[in-house]
Amino acid sequence: MTSRLYDSIEPNVIDEEMLQKAVEEQGPQEEAGQLAKREGINFKEVKELQLDFRNILKIDNLSQFANLTKLQLDNNIIEKIEALDSLVHLVWLDLSFNNIEVIEGLNALVKLQDLSLYNNRISKIENLDTLQELQVFSIGNNNINTLENMIYLRKFKNLRTLNLSGNPVCDNELYATFIAAYLPDLVYLDFRLVDDNMREMALIKYQYAIEEMKAGEYVAFAKQQVQEAAEKEVAYHKSAYVEYLNGPFLFDSMYADDPEAEKLIYLPGVADLLEIYKTKFVAICEALFEYGLREHERREAEVTLFYECLNEALADNEAQGTKIIQDFETRNHRALDVIQNLSDSQITESKLAEYRDDLSKLSETLMNLEMQLVDQLEEVIKDFERSILDLVAIFIENEQGLMAQCRDLENHHHEKLLEIAINTLEKVVKSEFDEELPDDVRMLFVDKDTIVNAVNASHDIHLLKIDNREDDIITKANGWASVIIEKVHNDELNRNRSRVLEINQYVDHLRSELESWDIME
Asked: Are 450 and 361 in contact (CB under 8 A)?
């Protein structure tokens, strides 16, 4: 395979100077371009970037181009695809004519539609799973040599154009037929239209293999749907802070990290005792789970209601503000033009005074309207804050009550288990215990301290698990309340600042027009 070798020129990395130069070269060159050059270019606003033919060895420093949609990195000496994770809006990417050996580092580019890796050293098509929008894929002149690798491209339901020309796999006499069969939605292969005749022949040749593959894909898809539904459900439960409480998960976790419990289960009556304990414990967890979901819905409803009220107040205020401005503009339509044509200076000055007075009233009225809204929203936000804190406090209080029941069950089970352990010890000491016990269990009965310590250690582990789960719920609930309340306050503060600035800019614009007229006069 042909691939660019290191030139006599020193290899480059993408640095600030290179980026600045590239953006300036690609921007407007007339007056607007010179102005942008003097004032500095905001890389976040750049949509397209050409970095071809620059002897680049390493991709770097592109995170500033957050809104980039098109990137050219072709004809360099790049060896590794990296540092592209921040370019989430990228639609078009050209990495052709480089020295890349592995497809990687593209997972974040979920909007990518056109990808060129032409003329590199790639031997396998892989690591493209997240690029579900991919429509055009050029990977000709590489080292791909197996037909089976082409089956990977079935993942991409939007793929319509594929270029593989110049790869060893193209020498296989079945190449075109195989691809036409396994990629039935492909329109162009190696710059040629995949015609209906080719597609029909391919389907006949590979009919049974494809039917078998489709059956496997269907099963895999069904499993994936089940998994995604389960993950979505767990995510919803997490938002209510009660994930994995709708079953024995917490109970099982208490015993999963308890080595002593594995030994104590051999004591007479403990298995039955444990089963009763588990049934009651799980019932409490499920009650907490159901309660948590109900409370989550109440909190979500409260948030929805708040934003409905907020948006209604904002819309009403905006309508009033618009009407005030429209009335002002109606009254003063072409006012300055009319005043300019007046011949009587006294009348002119009187009309100007009226205009200035009306302009001052406009500013005052708009500011008063904004202050009314601020006062109104302050009350609405205070009520919302109280409601949210009350809902969270009630949820935590009831959650703590249910967790206290779990602790009570654990304490009761501990007392019964300790009683059984002491009784068993007494029988062992008197040689009245005839049941077979594993050696590690029998070692617990060398003296009273040993068996009591084992039972207490088991108890401590269980209580710690319960306490940790309770703390986790409380921390997350309080954290959610703090975040949403802070967001509401910050949003309102930013809205108010923006509105005041908007009013001032509008009034200042009108005043500057008036001042300009005065100067001309």
From this structure: no
